[in-house]
Amino acid sequence: MTEAIIQVENLVKKFGDFTAVDGISFEVHPGEVVGYLGPNGSGKTTTIRILLGLLRPTAGRAQVLGFDVGREAESIRPLVGYMSQKAALYDELTVAENLTFYAGLYGLSTVQQRLRQREVLALVGLSDKQNERAGQISTGWRQRLALAIALVHQPRLLFLDEPTSGVDPAARRDFWDLIDELAQADTTVFVSTHFMDEAEYCSRLGIMSAGRLLAMDSPAALKRDVLPGPAWNLVVDRLIPAIEATEQIPGIAQVGLRGDHLHAITLAGQHSAESLQEALLDRGFAAQIEPAAPTLEDVFMTLAGRGGASKG
User: Fold this and answer.
1) Which of 193, 223, 253 is the last residue of a domain?
2) Is 0.85 surpassed by the pTM of this model?
3) Which end of the chain, N or C, is surrounded by fewer C-beta atoms within 10 Å?
4) Total domain count, the chain
5) 184-215 confidence digits (pLDDT tens)
6) CA gap 26, 22 in Å, rounded
7) Same domain, 147 and 194
8) pLDDT tens across 60-81, in order?
């Protein structure tokens, strides 16, 4: 395997008595799209800010592109792109003028600025909007502009901190198509999200909870290796009482509401559709039971319930 582009070992960040990042370790290799999944407050943004050299770790170590984040942060920043949750766009400037401004901050010459402006506007689909003011374009287009700014200096590594928050599902899907395009062109992407469906697009996925990295692997491997047994969909009336009844059935690892039905994980070898149906009928609930595809939500709930051990 190629040398890691990010290396994190036992990283800790405390703010007073509060531990925001709690002993995490992982690696990211060139060309990967590595997701960082977790709820708000789980330590995702703090990790990214440490890797950018914007925060000093309390303990542990991290290297980005071979540079130590604590001692050599100034060497890291020109080599990476960063798109924060709230991009710093200048609303009174046009799309093109925003790009020109940031290209200048990165030290691109006038000729380089013009060339990269054309390239990144075409890449993110903003060529037709380059003369519109940033404050007058939609949230989805603003996110594309923020991505263009993060890419204008051709970074080897791109940090995206919840880049699709506040945009509609179609715009989110388009944005992930752009991320895939970047990865195909050998840009390494480290992206945080709290959307389970987005996490499926990552080549590997780290799952965060309360500052701890509970697991990191491909989405398929996480669903295969973390869950204690098969998943089931339960179509049943009186959903809330049915949850309580299902939780009492021996061999049930977890159960929750999914739209108009219940979704359950059973321990391996403990149940068939017929045995689940019988157990619910004994408790006064007639149900239709079908095998279901496991989800990353199942993985997260399983790991969070265990208080899982960190592994990179």
Assistant:
1) 223
2) yes
3) N
4) 2
5) 888 999 999 988 888 999 999 999 999 999 99
6) 13
7) yes
8) 999 999 999 999 999 998 899 9
